[in-house]
Structures are given as C-alpha cells and as structure tokens.
Amino acid sequence: MSEPKIILTDTATPEELAVISDGLRDYNTSQAGYDDYKRLAIFVTDPDSGAIVGGIYGGSYMGQMSIERVYLPENLRRDRLGSRLIKMAEEEARRRGCSRLTLNTMEIQAQGFYLKLGFETAAALTCDPPGINRYVMTKKL
To answer: All domains of the chain, ordered by start, with CATH?
Structure first.
C-alpha cells in the first residue's frame, strides 16, 4: 500500500471540508452514543427593509453551546442590544440542556463586554507582535 499524500491548501471546497467534519462527527457519535448538534442563529434585522444587519451564530453539541460569531454594526452597539443577544443565546442553551456557553474573542474586540456579562477568561492566547491576543471565554449556565 502506498503512503498517503498530504496536501496543504487555502482553497478547500465545502465538500472537501465535509470529509473532515463529517468524519469527526461520526467518530464522536460512535464514542458518545448520540449526536445532538443543533445550529443556533439569532438575527438582528433592519426595521424597514427586513435585511439582516447583524447577530449571532453557533451551535450546541453534547452539553455546550458554542458561539462562533457575534457581529453588530457600530451604530447598533448601544441600548444593550448585544447583551440581549447573548441573553437569548444563554436562554436557548439552557432550553437545550447545555451547562456551558463558550466563545473566542480578540483583544481588539469585546473581552470586557463578555466579562461584564459573567463570562470568565478560560485561556489567554498571547500572540507576540505583530499578532493580536485571543481569549477563550466561558460561562457556566
């Protein structure tokens, strides 16, 4: 049998990436005995056009809700809109039986915002110049 080839790329297709994600999910399911992954999206829409202008997306899996992305345009970063979005994600996580909420942020983003909402910094990942430090944030529900 020949040695497998290893290919590095920055142009992988969704189908190619699915081989990895589906394979890992199948393995996890075989080990855990269940698969309860469910996506999460909370959208903020323009009141006039109905267009999505921001929000949250992520998913829940085996007891944990993971927030992958949070975005609000600068003109909507007021009136506790971001806090309301996180609170909605927390409530949905509890409804799904999750005991923890996790996310990643960078020093140029919103670590202080998440700390005010009761998150803890589980890990600080320093990235010496010219990089930007990252933080793994978690909140027990």
So the answer is: 14-140 (3.40.630.30)
